[in-house]
Structures are given as C-alpha cells and as structure tokens.
Amino acid sequence: MQLKSLRSFICTIAVGLCFQSVSAAGVIFTGSGLNSMNGNNPIAGSVEFEVSANALIVTITNTAMSDVEVPSDVLTGAFWSMDIGASSLTRTSGLLGAGSSVFYDPDGQPAGGVIGGEWAYKSGLSYHGAAYGISSSGLGLFGPGDVFPGPDLAPPPNPDGLNYGLLSAGDNTGTGNGGITGSAGLIKNSVVFTLTGLPGNFTLDSISNVYLQYGTDLSEPRLTTVPEPGTIALLGLAGLVLLGRRLR
Length: 248
Fold this sequence. Notes:
Layout: H1 3-25, E1 27-35, E2 41-52, E3 55-62, E4 75-81, E5 90-96, E6 101-103, E7 120-122, E8 132-135, E9 166-167, H2 178-181, E10 186-188, E11 190-196, E12 208-214, E13 222-224, E14 226-227, H3 232-246
Parallel strand pairs: 9-10
Antiparallel strand pairs: 1-2, 1-14, 2-3, 3-11, 4-8, 4-12, 5-11, 6-10, 7-8, 12-13
Helix pairs in contact: 1-3
C-alpha cells in the first residue's frame, strides 16, 4: 500500500475509532459535596453508563475518601433521565463491582457477587426531573416488584432500610454507629447493573439529570453530578494521527 493511501486509511480508521470509543467507553457522571447531617462529612460518588448491544450497563460507586460514620453517609441510589422512547428496560443483573466486598453481613460474601435481590430499578419516576432510578432503599419510590434477579441477602425481601448500600472507598469498616455496623450488610464500594431492551437508536448523550441519593429518606443528602470530559477517544485519535505523520 502506498504511503498516501496508507495515511488516508489511517485517518479513516482514526475517525471511526474516535466515534466508536465515545460509544464504547461510556460516560461517567461525578458529584461531591458535604453531608450537613453529619458535621459536613465529605461525600462523593459516580455513575457510569455504558452500552453493550441492547443493554445499558450502570455502575454506581461511592468514591469518597472520608469515613462512613452514619447512615446518611451511605450511597443508596442513582437517578437519571434518558431518551428511550416507549421502550421498557428489563432488570437483568446486579453484581458487586470489581474489587468490592460486603461488610457487616453475618453470612459473608454473596455467591457469585450477586446482589441484585437487594437493589431495585424503576422508570416513570418524578425525582427532580429524573424519570429512572436504581436504589437499595425504598425511599418511598421502590417496592418488591422492582428488584433485580437474585436472592434476598438481608430481610426484608424488598428494597428497604440501609441494607446493601455503598460504603465509601476510604471507609474504615471498623468504625461507624449502630446503623452502620448493625445494617446486616453494606458494600464497599461499587455495584454494576445490567438493563436490557435499549432501542437501536439509543445514544448515551441523551442521559441527563443524574443524581446520587444517600441514606434511606429523600430528605437526606442528594448530589447533583456533572459528566467527566471524554478524553479517552481523543487520546486514541491523537495517537493514530501521530502514526500517520511518522509514515510521511
């Protein structure tokens, strides 16, 4: 292949990979603030959305480096808006995130990392402009019919209380009040959910109004999030452009 043709080929591939990376890499929304219900203890979290075939993969992470001391420091839900038309999504799975573990549950770690039975998904909500949500607590919004597949790891058998919410990345699991240590199970520090049934024309840029909810009541801390800059695709494109220049 001649150099001119090869450079043209590389540029075409680079542009293609750029758009592919934007779609495949997903989008991450992050938020941080202070928990005024616990002496302005720092709280922070993220929600990552990815698309795989017709599935939406949602990863919720408690990224704070501060200690979790009381229930209102525990991340229990994520809410968002998106454009999927009249399509409905199916709750397919809920799993521990990579490197995450369960604490305070006398039964130990869940088999296969399956925690879906402790979390719920629902659409048609009205939560500060967000219509979709995933939560480990009922919050007056979720019920037994909204849970993901999986065993009931800690009674009651529906999203309620603090069970299986998210401890922070920096949490000292040896501390915390009775609501934490007696919770019957909390996760440090992320969970991954799969929702299937996305329409073929769905794009991640339709996601907005992403919030993080803490504690077991809507009066407890809520964080507004912002999307992180999409730098991965740009870095990949830059590398291919440099390669094309060297071939000159």
